[in-house]
Each structure stands twice: as structure tokens, then as C-alpha cells.
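>> received
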Amino acid sequence: MLSDQYRALIFASMRFTATGPVDEAKLLRSKLASHGVHLYINNTKPGESIDDAVFNTMARCDAFLAMATRDYGADTGNTASTHHEVRTWREEYESKGKPLIPLRMVSARARAFNFVGVLTRNMLLRRSRGAMSLSTRRGASCSGRTC
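>> returned
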């Protein structure tokens, strides 16, 4: 189970389009893994339920990373669209102290790996009573960068 291998699990929410940030997400996942954090990127196979894959995984995650491109959050009619992912996270998990982390993707080729330093420098991953928590250090900032 992933929660046994990593200190924290983060759900990567993004649009899967020709110009989407999938390559950046994969790079970010490899960088975060070296810090004991797993970034889940949906890889539902044909015939599998995307709703089950997305929403069951979100329930197990400690944080939600919104990789916000220009078309992020559009209600495409798909029940597992980024629109519904964000709505579900806000309604079900934010109130439980699980953060929604917006990552503004300026373009499809934005440098997502710059976020790794911000995450590892400004966030503390702590184990309390057997559960993971993600909390911001007091006074931490992105030093003027959009993060």
C-alpha cells in the first residue's frame, strides 16, 4: 500500500488534454518521491471506472494539488472532471484539515518542478497519531513567486 511507502500522498488534479501538464506532473512526482511524498496521477485504463479511480484515491490522499491551466475547472460533463474534483475536495476533505494546494500553470510547459522546493521548504510533513498531516511553517512564503 502506498501509505506504507510514503510519508504523504498528494492527489494531482489536472486536465488531460494535448496541452495539459502531464509531463510536468510526472517530473514533479519523481522529485517529490525523493522526499517521501507520492503524487498520484490518474492512469485509469479503458474499461475501468474513472469515477472510482479518482474519488477513491482522493479519499486516501493527504492533500490535493490543483495544476491549474487556463481550462482547469471547466465543467466538461464528465463526472470526474477537475470541476467536480475541486468541488468534492472542498466539500469533503478541506474541512478535515486536508489542504487544497493551487499551482498556477502559466502554460502547458510551465516549470512544475520549481514547486518541489516550495513544498519541501515551506511544508512540514508530520505523523501524528498514525495519520499524516501537511502543515505550513509559520511565516513561510513563496518569496514573491506564484506557487
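>> The chain is about 30% helix and 20% strand.
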